Amino acid sequence: xxxxxxxxxxxxxxxxxxxxxxxxxxxxxxxxxxxxxxxxxxxxxxxxxxxxxxxxxxxxxxxxxxxxxxxxxxxxxxxxxxxxxxxxxxxxxxxxxxxxxxxxxxxxxxxxxx
Amino acid sequence: xxxxxxxxxxxxxxxxxxxxxxxxxxxxxxxxxxxxxxxxxxxxxxxxxxxxxxxxxxxxxxxxxxxxxxxxxxxxxxxxxxxxxxxxxxxxxxxxxxxxxxxxxxxxxxxx
Lengths: 114, 112
Fold this sequence. Notes:
The structure holds 2 protein chains of 2 kinds. Chain A is mainly beta. Chain A has strands spanning 5-7, 10-13, 19-24, 31-38, 42-50, 53-57, 64-68, 74-78, 87-96, 101-105, 109-113. In chain A, the strands form 2 sheets. In chain A, strands 2, 4, 5, 6, 9, 10 and 11 form a 7-stranded mixed sheet that branches. Chain A has a 4-stranded antiparallel sheet with strand order 1-3-8-7, with no helix packed on it. In chain B, the strands form 2 sheets. In chain B, strands 2, 4, 5, 9, 10 and 11 form a 6-stranded mixed sheet that branches. At the A-B interface, β4, β5 and β10 of A face β4, β5 and β10 of B.
């Protein structure tokens, strides 16, 4: 099976612009979640989608939004970019493994805001 | 909400020695505690996990222990090897959707 695919791999934007990141989960996985990874802060939960519905949301401002399509692919949008939004954005699809949900991460999109 | 703290932030050990990474959590409703390993430039991958109804779990050289009363859990790596060098993240979640709270990571260096 193909892994979780994220596009693009790198993005450079300027303050005030908006950006859209894409994530294709592993076939058959219906849950997609997004995390922001920054040095020293670890991975911070943005939101999770299941069957096209946002099921959970982290403590990020409304500039961060997402959606999921009927084929489980997900997009994340960040509007009015700020310098502090520079980070690696990881998408993960998940599968119940009998003990808990196992996250399968993509390679991430490295966003730089200038 | 849940708060997961992880210590130490960096750890260096000699090859063959043991390494221990500790995490604490705040929400007593959390019941699933995975550990992820992220090698340089790569994506995080699950290496071991434990549920709140179990106190210890072992998989070859790695083990995880959980103390529900004290709300802390630890990762133990024995007989460390250079390929164990990576950043390790602990996490906590509840059975209400896939919302994971991660620690800030421990950068482990195994010195040959």
